[in-house]
Every structure is written in structure tokens, then in C-alpha cells.
Amino acid sequence: MSIDVNLDKATAQVRETGQNPAQRPTIAGFFDEATFTVSYVVHDAETSEAAIIDSVLDYDPASGSTGFGSADRIIEYITSNNLKVTWILETHAHADHLSAAPYLQEKLGGKLAIGADIVRVQEVFGKMFNAGTDFERDGSQFDHLFTDGETFRIGKLEAIALHVPGHTPADMAYLIGDAAFVGDTIFMPDYGTARADFPGGDARQLFHSIRRLLRLPRETRLFLCHDYKAPGRDEYAWETTVGQERDHNVHVRDGVTEDEFVAMRTTRDRTLAMPNLIMPSVQVNMRGGHLPEPEDNGVSYIKIPVNAVRRPA
Ligand SMILES: [Fe+2]
Description:
InterPro entries: Metallo-B-lactamas, Mito_Persulfide_Diox, POD-like_MBL-fold, RibonucZ/Hydroxyglut_hydro. By secondary structure, this protein is an alpha/beta fold. The protein has one domain: 4-Layer Sandwich (Metallo-beta-lactamase, Chain A). The protein contains 8 helices and 14 strands. The strands form 3 sheets. Strands 1-2-3-6-7-8 form a 6-stranded mixed sheet, covered by helices on one side. It has a 6-stranded mixed sheet with strand order 9-10-11-12-13-14. A two-stranded antiparallel sheet has the order 4-5. Bound molecules: fe (ii) ion (FE2). Fe (ii) ion binds next to loops.
């Protein structure tokens, strides 16, 4: 196995947290049933510093109107627990929901961060949506761009960012204490894994990213970005462990080979419809959650490129 210094650092962090339970983060999940997304607030009980991960801006595609119900639930939780937001984290530029990061940042503060390869995503989608030169493709819409292995803190909690591409080129997982927020890589064991067919996605890369995460200690807690229930399970769930995934994940449990995974993932992805909100999500999220610049009448428009994205087989 090749040397992976950053994963070793992450492993040491989980072990250290295990010996020192005061370093375990306090975690609240907020499920948005309209997009099957889980947003999280993670905080340090000692200092009350908090991070918000993968927030949701409500969006009604028929009317083109946004709403703040989901984000306000997070604000309510932060306020009633007297938390101080220091980070607003995105695991990636989501294609199925709009981010509420700018709204939350305005109300609560905190630094907005995403993976450094967002610039590649901005390049691809900037072209697809023919965004003008006013759309900067350098990640400057974010306050911080994380690289693989970069460490940071939430109060006294230790955290490390891991680059886990495949679903998109820029996906990051954030390991905070003993809890990994894995974005769209792996889902619950009975559901499997994220799709890898968006522009810039790669099933082979996704396999490597997931297997990398699964080399963390078995007790590592995993918090997922989505859940869609699963055959035989009628309740939403978004927390599992590395051990559970290694033993039971229907797509990538121990023993499944890279080629088997890639064949399964590619075949399955060909049958999946695009997410309802892919067009508005991508245009807004590539801008760090900001709507496109208003036109001269003061109105912001979402574009739909015709025949730019394939239909499911
Ligand atoms: Fe996603």
C-alpha cells in the first residue's frame, strides 16, 4: 500500500479523540426532505465554537423562488445553544440543492470554505453556463480553499480536510475529532455510494477515495450528506461507522474490487435521472451560493443550457 501521510494524520486524530472523549464534537443533523440532504452543525462543547456543514437554501423551481426555512432552523439551533460560528464548510459544489452559505454567513459570521479544486469545477460549469468574464474561476467567492491534509480547528476540536474526488473533482471530507463528514462519497451501508457521472466525475477515483476513507479506524463515525432510505428501511439515517461500511456497504464493502465497483457504478449511473435542481444548484453553488449577478432590471436569472447534459438511458 502506498504511503499516505495525510491519512496517517487523520488516523492519529481519531485514535487521540478515542482516548480523550472531551475532544469528541457535538453534532446535530438537519434533514431536508425536499432534497434528501443532511446539513450539520458541529461544535466544541468547551468553547461553543461551531462549524456548519452543507447548508440548504430552499428553492422552488416552478416559481423560481428561494426560501430560508431550512437555514433558519440552523440559525435557531445556533442561537438557542449560544454557539459562535467560525466555519461554514461545503464538502463540494452540490448539484441537487442550493447552498445557504451566504445567508448564514451574513447572519452568523464564519469563514466559508470548500476544496481547492473548486476552481476546476468553476472552469467546467463556467463554460457550460457560458458565464461571463465577471464570473471569477479562481475560488475567490470563498474565504478559504482547503487542500488535502490541511488541519484546522473548531474551538479546541482538531480537524483535518481530506480530498476525496470522484463524485466531483473537488469533493472534500472533513474529519473533526472522531467524526468524518464525508459529503457525497459513501452513503448508508444498505444504500451504497454517490453517483460519479456529473461533469468531472470519475467512478475509479471515487472508489479510491472511498477505500481511502475506509482505512480510517473502524470506530470512526461517518456522517453522510444524503439519505434516500433503502429497500427494507423506512426511516432516514445518516450516521454510520467505518466498520459498518467495510462489513456491509452494498457497493464497496471489503472484497469488492475496483473493476467490479466501476462496472456497477457506471451501469447504474446511466439509468439515473439528473437531480431536479441540478441547473439552479450548480449555477448558484459555483458562485459560493450567490445568485448570478442581477441583470439591468435588477432580477437574477437561472439559465438552462439545452441539450448540454445527457438524459438517462
Ligand atoms: Fe453532490
